[in-house]
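Researcher: Next entry in the queue.
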Amino acid sequence: MAHSPAPAVVVVPVKAFGQAKARLAAALPPEGRAELARTMAEVVLDAAAPLGVVVACDDEDVAAWAPGTDLNGALRAAVDRSRDAGIARVVIAHADLPFASGLARLADAGPDEVLAVADRHGRGTNVMSLPTDAGMELCFGPGSLAAHRAAAQAAGLRFVEVDEPALAWDVDEPADLDPPAALGPRSAITTA
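Model: Structure for this entry, 192 residues:
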């Protein structure tokens, strides 16, 4: 009897909390940034339900131990391990999305589709859903949305941008700590 693959998992890249959110140094002390990073990561992990979660680490100490394990390398390894475990699709969601919810709905895509949620500036990729066997290059970093569109097309996949304002709000700069009220409660980014 053939075993059908598990539908999907959510892959969340997480930096060491003590190293996260350095660009917020003007607004928060180190312990405040670490707490903020942990709180937002918890929101994202909760938003993955009912799907399973894989945490991908691009920690500098780990990267020094295993050269080549930058963010995209860590994510590629997580996608490959998921495929090898019989998972058909991964939803990659960054850990700094304080309004994340319902990530499982992004797992509902065709076998030749890549779904992407851009950051609110339309340049980065905050969330991406792709088949684990796509062989598509991962291009997270500055300008990643256009790079992912090109990588999907090069792999023969259909690239679909999904408009999700709550998933488009990520926290990188001090101004990001003051989101519009329409996004919902600010509990994940309340700073003391």
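Model: The radius of gyration is 16 Å.
Researcher: Noted, moving on.
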